[in-house]
Amino acid sequence: MSAFSVTRRILSLRLPRLPTDRIRRIHARNEDASRDRGCIVVAKHKNALQISALDAHAETRGLEIGLPLANARAVCPNVQVFDEDIVADAKLLSDIADWCDRYTPLVALDPPHALLLDITGCAHLFGGEAALLSAVCEALTAQGFVVSAAIAGTATCASTLSRITHGRVVRAGEEAHAVKALPVAALGAEATITRGLRRAGLKTIGDVVARATHEIAARFGADFTGLLDQALGHSDAPISPRKPLPDYIVEKRFADPVATDAVIAATLAALAQTLVSAMEQQGKGARRLEAVFFRTDGAVRTLAVEAGQPVTNADMIDRLFRERLDALADPLDPGFGFDLIRLSASRTEIVVQNQRDLDAHAHTNDDRSALIDRIAARIGGRRVVVHLPVDTHLPERAARVAPAQHNVAIAALAQWPEPAADEPPLRPLRLFERPERIEVPFAQVPDGPPARFRWRRMLYIVARAEGPERIAMEWWKRHAEGPTRDYFRIEDETGLRFWIYRNGLYGHEIDPETKEPVPPGWFVHGLFA
């Protein structure tokens, strides 16, 4: 092993009674939800309701997972019964994972009721691994959860231990010794494999290890032997954190929770300065920043802002978050206070320094980008947009909408068709979102403009017309997009000017049933001001 390598350490955090704990928390103030009655959660299995989760009191009354509901009521008539809610359980587990981010940013889900925390290199911040495990479990227990936890060098070993024991911290290299005495069910393998091992007389993991590897693989498959090797610490598999690791993280922990806006704002400003200093050392700026507020009751609130250009100024970061906080529809509720505030740069870029003293245009671009960032922080980046030209024949697709933060420079260099000087526009400045169908009794000539048309229940008499302007689809889209269009600029007797088109040509579309030509449709696409 290299002198600079770090042994990986994984904390398995298991909540074996998560469904019933969730229900108990909801009904904590309900006098009818007495703990003495017991609580079970049932789910349909093979057209029968069976217990899928239960609390400690129900278990002491002789109930167990997998027992039919009818049998459970016979054993314990007054037991409280609730339907399984997988979505709510998953949401609660995700919320707990968010809370665990205070200890390490590498938190992975281990469904259905467990988490895996990669605490490599961070346990010393909390007084060591044993102190960290104790702190996590005590905090979750105070919130009303039953917890079982263990720490080991591999995720599988830690998870195996947490299924059977609690509070075990296994030193590196001692994984095999720690799990050999555990029952084979602790591995978390499929039920068929666990039953097969027991029928073969292999009741503990040590019994399985005593047999030759090829014998176990031939009977139970290579996946199981791989799982066994990971539990013994002979091999390892990476965990899959829910969130990517930010490029830079700074945080402030408080001995006494803070709740005032002034302290929160001052903390964010100080963290922004520290973050900028760290990024400056590597010549980087932040494009996306996140502020995370951890409440003492376990709630977590995350605010994110983005920038069109890499931000290297702490005042700009502070200003963006002030805009974001002021625009919150749901204010940042500190509850009993925040005990941890974290600021991270989740996306950064290398900053290229340019000489701008004599370039007034560069300063204008910076001011424009800063203004766009502030507006986006207040109302949302998707609401601040620019229009970019698109190389297509279809008028309604000649421009696309793009977020201004990431496309303001492209929009400044975009080339739009130049209007003809001293001539009326050939097309309206604004088009309908969808062309609206009009009724045309007849046209002056087969390929000419209509003599009259009805639109929105009004009849318009055509006084003057210009066209046609024939617009065909791109050759690779003609079959999918539709027929050729002939556009006309129409003016009626009252002076109203329309931009209409005929969708298709006369005689080109044949009705498959009558074998007669189908007249093309007419649409109004816009109005000239």
**Second rung of CATH, namely the architecture of the largest domain:** 2-Layer Sandwich
Q: What is the number of independent domains? A: 4
Helix percentage range: 25-40%
Any idea what the radius of gyration is?
Answer: 34 Å
CATH class membership of the largest domain: Alpha Beta
Globally, the shape reads elongated
Walk me through the structure.
With 529 residues, the protein is of the alpha+beta class. It has 4 domains: 1-238, 2-Layer Sandwich (Alpha-Beta Plaits), CATH 3.30.70; 248-352, Dna Ligase, domain 1 (2-Layer Sandwich); 363-417, no CATH class; 431-528, no CATH class. Helices cover 31% and strands 28% of the residues. The protein contains 16 helices and 20 strands. A 6-stranded antiparallel beta sheet has the order 15-20-19-18-17-16, with no helix packed on it. A 5-stranded mixed beta sheet has the order 5-6-1-7-8, with helices on both faces. A 4-stranded antiparallel beta sheet has the order 9-12-10-11, sandwiched between helices. The longest helix has 20 residues, at 261-280. The radius of gyration is 34 Å and the shape is elongated. Mean pLDDT is 87; it is low at 1-5.
